[in-house]
Amino acid sequence: MLRLFVALDFPDDIRRRLAGLGGGVPGARWTEEENLHLTLRFIGEVPDDMAGDIDAALAGVTAPAFDLTLDGVGVFGAGRASRVLWAGVERSEPLIHLQSKIESALVRAGLAPEERKFTPHVTLARLKDAPQDRIGRFIAERGLFRAGPFPIDQFTLYRSHLGRTGPVYEAVAEYRLDG
Ligand code: 3AM
């Protein structure tokens, strides 16, 4: 089986700035700098022999390249159930368009439709029993974070290897957007 997802990756300087947001929250497991990305579609475990169909479906996606801006930080979950610290994404029609093209291509390739609404974000950290006041302080102090606009001219199919020291993401294929 292969564990796959589709994501946008960022220019090195943007990734560095995102990684620089980390720290100061006990119970937070920060995303490694090289792993920072924006998930467009989590595919999950598929049999090895589906990879060819998935690749062909993604290769058939046509959508324009665009500029993206990251904006603000926040938390998914509330209180003791706080799960993820994220960096936000400025509203972007081309991003939504690209995501929905990828979604329909994958469904045509035989994957079950994604039921959850697309909530664009960059996971900065996963939280376990993080104190509320420190989460609140993180959001207050980093709330003005903004990066970009920077160009998005491709998207990537990743394979996720789950390891004891955290996931390793391997880029399997890259797909150009129309310039
Ligand atoms: O971009 P983020 O970090 O939010 O959380 C996982 C990560 O998203 C998500 O897929 C991305 C690459 O691993 N993910 C992992 N398991 C998942 C699942 N069972 C999942 N998303 C939905 N369902």
From TrEMBL:
<feature type="active site" description="Proton donor">
    <location>
        <position position="37"/>
    </location>
</feature>
<protein>
    <recommendedName>
        <fullName>RNA 2',3'-cyclic phosphodiesterase</fullName>
        <ecNumber>3.1.4.58</ecNumber>
    </recommendedName>
</protein>
<dbReference type="InterPro" id="IPR009097">
    <property type="entry name" value="Cyclic_Pdiesterase"/>
</dbReference>
<keyword id="KW-0378">Hydrolase</keyword>
<comment type="function">
    <text>Hydrolyzes RNA 2',3'-cyclic phosphodiester to an RNA 2'-phosphomonoester.</text>
</comment>
<feature type="active site" description="Proton acceptor">
    <location>
        <position position="121"/>
    </location>
</feature>
<feature type="short sequence motif" description="HXTX 2">
    <location>
        <begin position="121"/>
        <end position="124"/>
    </location>
</feature>
<feature type="short sequence motif" description="HXTX 1">
    <location>
        <begin position="37"/>
        <end position="40"/>
    </location>
</feature>
<dbReference type="InterPro" id="IPR004175">
    <property type="entry name" value="RNA_CPDase"/>
</dbReference>
<comment type="similarity">
    <text>Belongs to the 2H phosphoesterase superfamily. ThpR family.</text>
</comment>
<dbReference type="Pfam" id="PF13563">
    <property type="entry name" value="2_5_RNA_ligase2"/>
</dbReference>
